[in-house]
Amino acid sequence: MGATERIAELMKVMHEREIGEMLDFAEFLLAKRDRETTEARATLDKYAGRYDGAKWQREELYDRAGLR
To answer: Which of 14, 41, 58, 66: CA 20 to 30 A from 22?
Structure first.
């Protein structure tokens, strides 16, 4: 039995108030997912275009003054 079927079975024995709380929680989870998606896209937009696609050599990365 999947989660959807299990939730449907539980709702059959719950009071209307409890089902309302489940609905509120489900809507909260969806809003949270939307907010996280929006924040992730904003981060990607913030750094869009900064990488020019130039190739780099791993050995050159170790030859920086800050690593000595």
So the answer is: 41
Question: Is 11 within 8 Å of 19 (Cβ atoms)?
Answer: yes
Task: Give CA–CA dist 13/8, Å, rounded.
Answer: 9
pTM of the model: 0.62
**CA angle, corner 22, sides to 16 and 27, nearest 5?**
125
* Residue pair 10/21 in contact by the 8 Å Cβ criterion: no
For 39-56, give one letter per residue: b (16+ CB within 10 A) or e: eeeeeeeeeeeeeeeeee
Q: How far apart are CA 6 and CA 21, in angstroms?
A: 17
